Amino acid sequence: MRQISDEDRREIAKELREQFYCCRYAEEFTEGLYDVFSPVHYELNRGCYPDLAECLADYVEPAPVTGSTSDGYHTFDELYHHRAVLFSVIVAMFRGRSWKSLHHHDGMMYDGMFIVGIDTPAGPATYHYDVEPYWDMFPCEVLDRAPEWDGHTPDDAIERIGTLRDILQAEVKAEKGGDE
To answer: What is the dihedral sign for C-alpha 93, 127, 147, 135?
Structure first.
């Protein structure tokens, strides 16, 4: 079965709305459907097919994605906070490699946000966070302007952060005398 994209759903919902407003067969098509969606609505709006079209289109159209959108386990807001806390621990462990700034290299920044970065063996990894409540969570050097972005993607960033594990493993091995 083909997965329907959100864009396809939006187009289908739009077409459904347009068809119901101009379709002479709407009454025939919707006969009995009011009982399924809302018996009370049917009694109050008998014959009001554009309202039913809106109801059907709303079922088809994807809901807008917000911070409270959930995968059934966590909301985006929760996951964003988790990432901030976890990255702040990494930054604290690698203070000498980390920095934060209220400005990009060109002096611009998203409203109410800052950028925090860490220089890894594979290149920099950066994230943007809201100044409140996250600025004080990151104990690292404050720069007037962030270094120029090298074009890294989110996939690059997490892969680069993973290279820090090698540094930690080498430090542990050195502490144990290198016999591992």
So the answer is: negative
